């Protein structure tokens, strides 16, 4: 989603809306895929972890929750790092952390150790990658920003479609330890994406005149004046309530299907269905949000997406067979994709470009606790 990162890019530089921006978009697509799909795809290993350590669903759900909480709640740390070292070096280090966490997790002998490695270390690494990549994407695109955000957000369902069945194969062939080790190697590709984040160069004539202004911007890490905006307060409260349950279905749908007696591969296919629908929902919604008539009114479209997502969850709770779960995954994928494609554009429309970096960081900090307790709380009531 983003981070509390004061814009360290050169002022006076017009977003190219293309060119090398497409390479940045590709890197952001990969990073987004790993960041959001990884906490959900790891859920395919939950059954093995339950048998290995003799724990329950709620205990295993903490892995995904910690990953997401680190992704949401480490904004200030990412701010300091990006302001001090720049986006590209932070992303390279983040890629190493993400990989190292999963590799170490493959040697763990208790669930608490997995919390610290696969949860905290890998989650921090993904945060150090995803948040700067979002900053770079919004520097490279302006007029095409809704489409760019929609396309980059599509990385989440694409990777979810790939990582979920891949996790099943790795678990079957190498066990959860071997699967964690291989996934750790795959996360090294985050370093490659970080290398694509070439900073925009300011015009040579304006360097001397713009330098004092840039220094003043860097000093202001968080702009708390956004709380004076009633629209922002409503957005923050609504988003925090929404994420309390937003990630519960993708985390538990596989385990729920297994409890109903369906085969592991058939259960994992539900995530593939959800992700496949999500692949098309995000870019299509991004294109719709970019239309001249819709863009000024995208707040209403986002509100509909949130209501639609909640209604889908209520109806999905009544599913008692595989057909019902398939229908639920289809409609959840549509609503989930709409929310993912619109959240950045709506917040930008509410607070404006200058306060966007502070606003999104404060929203994420408010959401972090909800993300952390959501799936484990739902796991307490699993059957």
From TrEMBL:
Q: What is its main location?
A: membrane
Residue ranges annotated for the Major facilitator superfamily (MFS) profile domain, each copy included: 21-383
Keyword Nucleus listed? The answer is: no
Residues spanning the signal sequence? none
Q: How does the record classify its membrane topology?
A: Multi-pass membrane protein
Q: Which residues cross the membrane?
A: 20-39, 60-85, 97-130, 151-170, 176-197, 232-257, 269-291, 298-316, 322-344, 356-374
Q: Which Gene3D superfamilies match?
A: MFS general substrate transporter like domains
Location(s) in or outside the cell: Basolateral cell membrane
Q: What GO molecular-function term can you cite, just one?
A: lactate:proton symporter activity
- Keyword Transmembrane attributed: yes
Pfam assignment, any one:
MFS_1
Which domain of life, per UniProt? Eukaryota
What GO CC annotations are associated with the protein?
Answer: basolateral plasma membrane
Q: Which UniProt keywords apply?
A: Cell membrane, Membrane, Symport, Transmembrane, Transmembrane helix, Transport
Family, per entry: Belongs to the major facilitator superfamily. Monocarboxylate porter (TC 2.A.1.13) family.
What protein name is recorded for this chain?
Answer: Monocarboxylate transporter 4 isoform X2
């Amino acid at each position: 989603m983003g981070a509390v990162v004061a814009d360290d890019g050169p002022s006076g530089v017009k977003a190219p809306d293309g060119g090398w921006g497409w390479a940045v978009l590709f890197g952001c697509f990969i990073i987004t895929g790993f960041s959001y799909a990884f906490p959900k795809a790891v859920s395919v290993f939950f059954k093995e972890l339950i048998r290995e350590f003799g724990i329950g669903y709620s205990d295993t759900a903490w892995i995904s929750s910690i990953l997401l909480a680190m992704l949401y709640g480490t904004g200030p740390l990412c701010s300091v790092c990006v302001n001090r070292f720049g986006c590209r070096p932070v992303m390279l280090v983040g890629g190493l952390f993400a990989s190292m966490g999963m590799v170490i997790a493959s040697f763990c002998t208790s669930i608490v150790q997995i919390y610290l490695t696969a949860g905290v270390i890998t989650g921090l690494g993904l945060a150090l990658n995803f948040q700067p990549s979002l900053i770079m994407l919004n520097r490279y695109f302006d007029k095409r920003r809704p489409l760019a955000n929609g396309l980059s957000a599509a990385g989440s369902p694409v990777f979810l479609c790939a990582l979920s069945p891949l996790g099943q194969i790795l678990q079957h062939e190498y066990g959860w330890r071997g699967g964690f080790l291989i996934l750790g190697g795959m996360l090294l590709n985050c370093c490659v994406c970080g290398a694509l984040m070439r900073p925009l160069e300011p015009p040579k004539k304006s360097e001397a005149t713009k330098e004092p202004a840039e220094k003043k911007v860097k000093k202001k890490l968080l702009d708390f004046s956004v709380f004076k905006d009633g629209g922002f307060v409503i957005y923050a409260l609504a988003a925090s309530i929404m994420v309390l349950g937003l990630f519960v279905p993708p985390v538990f749908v596989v385990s729920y299907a297994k409890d109903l007696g369906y085969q592991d591969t058939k259960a994992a296919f539900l995530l593939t269905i959800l992700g496949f629908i999500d692949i098309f929902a995000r870019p299509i919604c991004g294109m719709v949000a970019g239309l001249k008539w819709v863009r000024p009114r995208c707040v209403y479209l986002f509100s509909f997406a949130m209501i639609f997502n909640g209604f889908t969850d209520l109806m999905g709770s009544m599913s008692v067979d595989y057909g019902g779960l398939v229908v639920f995954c289809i409609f959840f994928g549509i609503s989930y994709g709409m929310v993912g494609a619109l959240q950045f554009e709506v917040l930008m429309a509410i607070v404006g470009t200058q306060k966007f970096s502070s606003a999104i960081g404060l929203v994420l900090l408010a959401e972090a606790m909800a993300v952390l307790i959501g799936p484990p709380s739902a796991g307490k009531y699993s059957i």
